[in-house]
Amino acid sequence: MEFLLVLIYSIAFILLGIYLLLRKRYSYFAERGILHDKPDLIFGNFRKMRLSKPIFLVFREYYNKYKGKAKYVGFYLFLRSFIVILDLELIKNVLIKDFEYFPNRGTYYNEKDDPISASIMHLDYEKWRNMRVKLTPTFTSGKMKFMFPTVVDVATQLVEVMRDAHESGSFEMGIEFADLIARYAVDVIGSIAFGLNCNSLTNPEAEFKVMGIKGFRYRHNWFVHSFIVSYPDLARKLGMKFHFDDVGEFFLRIVRETVTYREKTGTQRKDFLNLLIDLKNSDTADPITMEQITAQAYVFFTAGFETSSCTMSFCLYELGLNQMVQNKLREEIMEVLARYEGKFTYEAMNEMKYMEKVLNETMRKYSIVAFTLRRAIKDYVIPNTNHVIEKGMDVVIPIDALHHDPELFPNPEEFNPERFSPSEVEKRNSMSYIPFGDGPHTCIGIRFSRLVIMIGLVMVLQNYRILPTKKTENPLQYNPKKYFMGSKNGIYLKTEKICGIVNE
Ligand code: HEM
Ligand SMILES: *[C@@H]1O[C@H](CO)[C@@H](O)[C@H](O)[C@H]1NC(C)=O
User: Fold this and answer.
1) Which of 443, 446, 485 to mutate to test the pocket of ligand 1 (most atoms within 8 A of CB)?
2) Does residue 453 have a pLDDT over 90?
3) Which residue, of 9, 105, 199, 464, has the fewest CB within 10 Å?
4) What is the CATH topology of the domain spanning 54-497?
């Protein structure tokens, strides 16, 4: 009896504590006169999320509501507060000019207990800079040229899988492209980052893809998650991890096996892993360890696979709906290849200027990474004001919302590659288009993602015309549960063989 009473009192006490903590947290912006929506007690400004709206739409609406009224606004999410920046100059300050105040993304990593989390994506300042310096040479144009044939090999398999499906008739009603292209991207990045033939194009349930997707699922709910991210030092002391154990074990095992094999046999391959092994064996003061190699290879995979594959499938979707754009793009591909005597090379790819416009417009309309984050490490006084972004505050850069701002991109739902003609680009502030973020933390994989997507598109469009079917959604429905922007019900398109062009 007494025990029960103590239990009830303890629970009541804990609940009261949480209530007071949240109330205190959720008065932060009001006390400082920063504009924001009135928060709910538990979810802050995130209630809309429960109404199954994708997170990028939450931020898009927030941005549209407050733009012009303030340069930045507050946003609450569980235990956390964020400053959402609405003003382009202030975005530039945070990302580039005043980087020293915002050198971290403020996401979590735990080198000791969850080694695959200690990647360039999550590491803090010195550790991050150290790794970034080491990895940057891995992504030069010369290295892309070196990897080009490896990617073409996988794209050839993609076309073969398409041909099989096409011939077996399953393409008549359209096939689901989001998954097909995801398998292509898994195979490319598995091959390039891990040196493995993942075979997910031919075997949709390949372990690699399954583990890769599981890597996106964190082991904790949002509440524990926000605790970890808010108190990273404490969380690390408690040994808290983000990833499921089997995911870390899987990637550590395959990297160890592959590296050992290559070292024993002296195998060299045209891929990232080769470049990472060189870093390990270079006799600099601190060569990178097997765990560090795994973490970087793993993040190339998680940061690269879904972003590139969704961009490519959204691009095919728009090409299906916009036949004029598709024809013009195919003409460019044929014209450039003809000049290169039918040989598809890295140089030929770089001459496809209309392709670049199409790709940029795809990444404007579908900004897969809808926002990026920075955390202030010291008080930042906003220029020409007496407002302060306090030390420890998380800052949101609403990439997707900028790309859908009608003042920056009139009629934002229209797909129009001519927005990226030189004269149009010149009219805009450079911060209005940042699909890869900007500044020292900008995406390290920009060139590589272009390689994956452009090679895939060239190979597909040379062989097939892409058409919508009855099943093609317009407008597309988004999956509200995903962190990245993705389709909810898949992307159905049909293919029509292009005759007389393929060299068979
Ligand atoms: C279309 C494809 C892609 C998009 C849209 C994309 C977008 C982004 C964005 C918005 C960021 C945050 C930048 C910032 O905070 O300023 C980022 C960071 C990053 N991306 Fe990508 N990405 C893509 C492909 C890739 C690929 C293929 C790789 C790897 C091979 C990659 C690796 C990374 C890494 C390592 C970071 C963290 C960089 C750092 O903090 O130093 N990404 N990406
Ligand atoms: C396309 O976007 C990339 C990356 O954001 C940029 O560097 C490039 O200049 C853009 N190209 C055009 C034609 O606007």
Assistant:
1) 443
2) yes
3) 9
4) Cytochrome p450 (1.10.630)
